[in-house]
Design brief:
Largest sheet: 6 strands, parallel
Radius of gyration: 24 Å
Helix content: 25-40%
Number of helices: 14
Bound molecules: S-adenosyl-L-homocysteine, iron/sulfur cluster, FE3-S4 cluster
Strand content: 15-25%
Length: 479
């Protein structure tokens, strides 16, 4: 394909989506096959994913596009096309990407045909894109979170326009559906139910890089899950930054609890999970649906962020310590076998020793089954970044260590309470350390290791929990 031909094909592209991308996947495939023939081997593509489940899901879509366009998926970064799907929620996520770009540059020197692309949340920040334009000239393609569906078009273009291509959108109101996806697991899958976030917690960059909240139509969600089930999926994870506000802006509004009830009716689907719930709008209706529907897993992730009402207010979380405690108690009473997990930030601007003690107090009262603990990271452009009283690292670090110790102690105690019980596990893979064992996930999200082989992967088995190892179990199979 030469440049004239390329321009003709560009000209002939349909303007409507997803037809336009189907067209570009075909065009790209012609090119990829041609290059493969020249090289005498398949063209490979490698995606590295940073960050949360949203990004993991996006990467499956991106890989689906690449495979349809003729690339062979590879785990090896010495590939013909390498894509970093980035995260910017905390600064260390950004630093990891910059660190690895240097390594990619070395690989590219060995393979001049290599195309390096960056996408995801970091790319939505203009300062990041400026930095890459200036100091990482070897990057070929940059796009954002709102236009991942355009990968085939962008990459096709890059093969002919020999310069860095940047296409980052500020926001979007469109949801492009029905493009291919390459699932990482055959038996479980994430399913987006909404995109973006409107909560603007004062420390958080997600609303700026993921845009405003948009819910998908329930019919599209159900159809996607039905297709997944037909393809062997038994467990789905419904994804959104705040699933509890699902459906509020739909033409025919619908609550998240109603959506769950509809999803639970899908025959052949065995397990339903969801992430994440914001405490401010977790309804009694949702608690009741969780309690009454056995397909909904016994796990709720309910980020606390801080136990201090004063700090929660500064964080714009819209609930206080007492409200969180009351909510946690209600959930634990209604669903006693539920495992409650959380996220906590230490060192938010202005956090005093008394505030931190309040966080410890909530941790001790609620007794979380597990908790992700984070050191506050200043994100440019967020209100908290402009607050004056940033807490110095030497104050934050000891607090973080104290919290971690408390969280781990409680989580080990919680985990031991179920020893001797019989539960169902979905086998996810082989044990990394012992080839005679498999690892399975319990409904409450805790892992159990027990004897088995590769043929068990993807099946639901009954196991007895023999021993707790702090945050996972050793078990024996009953069925
Ligand atoms: N939408 C989800 C969270 C997404 S980000 C929710 O509200 O629950 C995942 C976690 O990262 C957050 O719960 C928070 O604990 C943490 N986090 C977000 N911004 C952060 C920052 N600037 N510094 C440290 N941790 C942060
Ligand atoms: Fe960030 Fe808050 Fe939105 Fe979660 S709810 S993504 S913490 S702004
Ligand atoms: Fe990171 Fe973006 Fe998720 S910033 S946590 S990958 S939404």
């Amino acid at each position: 394909m030469d440049r004239t031909e390329y321009l003709q094909r560009l000209e002939a592209a349909p303007s409507l989506e997803p037809d336009r991308q189907e067209y570009f996947m075909d065009q790209l495939k012609t090119l990829v096959l041609q290059k493969s023939r020249e090289l005498g081997r398949p063209m490979t593509a490698c995606i590295q994913t940073f960050g949360c489940q949203m990004n993991a899901k996006d990467s499956e879509k991106l890989l689906g596009i690449l495979e349809q366009a003729g690339f062979k998926a590879s785990e090896d970064e010495a590939s013909d096309f390498v894509l970093y799907n980035t995260c910017t929620v905390r600064d260390n996520a950004n630093q990891r990407v910059y660190g690895r770009l240097g390594y990619l540059n070395n690989l590219k020197k060995k393979n001049p045909n290599m195309i390096i692309a960056l996408c995801g949340c970091m790319m939505q920040e203009p300062t990041v894109v400026e930095k890459i334009k200036k100091s990482y000239r070897f990057v070929d393609l940059i796009f954002g979170t709102h236009n991942i569906f355009k990968l085939a078009e962008l990459l096709f273009t890059r093969y002919f326009e020999k310069q860095m291509i940047i296409d980052v959108w500020d926001g979007t109101d469109k949801i492009v559906e029905n493009l291919p996806a390459e699932r990482k697991y055959s038996f479980k899958s994430g399913v987006n139910i909404m995109y973006g976030c409107n909560n603007f917690c004062s420390y958080c960059i997600v609303p700026y890089v993921r845009g405003r909240e948009r819910s998908r139509n329930p019919e599209d969600i159900i159809k996607e899950i039905e297709a997944l089930v037909a393809d062997g999926v038994v467990e789905v994870m419904l994804l959104g930054q705040n699933v509890n506000s699902y459906g509020k802006t739909l033409e025919t509004p619908m609550t998240f609890a109603e959506l769950l009830k509809r999803v639970a009716k899908i025959e052949g689907l065995e397990r339903i999970r969801f992430m994440t719930s914001h405490p401010k709008d977790l309804s009694d209706e949702l608690i009741a649906v969780m309690r009454d529907c056995p397909k909904i897993c016994r796990h709720l992730h309910l980020p606390l962020q801080s136990g201090s009402s004063r700090i929660l207010k500064q964080m714009n979380r819209v609930y206080n310590k007492e409200q969180y405690l009351a909510l946690a108690k209600k959930i634990q009473t209604e669903i006693p076998d539920l495992s409650l997990t959380t996220d906590i930030i230490v060192g938010f601007p202005g956090e005093m020793e008394e505030d931190f003690e309040e966080t410890l107090d909530v941790v001790r009262k609620v007794r979380f089954d597990s908790a992700f603990t984070f050191i506050y990271s200043k994100r440019t452009g967020t209100p908290a970044a402009a607050m004056e009283n940033q807490v110095p690292e030497e104050v934050v670090k000891p607090r973080f260590d104290r919290l971690l110790k408390e969280v781990q102690k409680i989580s080990a105690e919680r985990c031991s309470k179920d020893v001797g019980k019989t539960m169902t596990a979905l086998v996810e893979g082989m044990d990394d350390h012992d080839p005679s064992m498999v690892t399975g996930r319990l409904s409450n999200n805790i892992m159990v290791h027990f004897p088995g082989d590769a043929s068990d992967i993807g099946t639901l088995l009954t196991v007895r929990l023999l021993e707790s190892r702090g945050f996972y179990y050793i078990g024996e199979r009953i069925s």
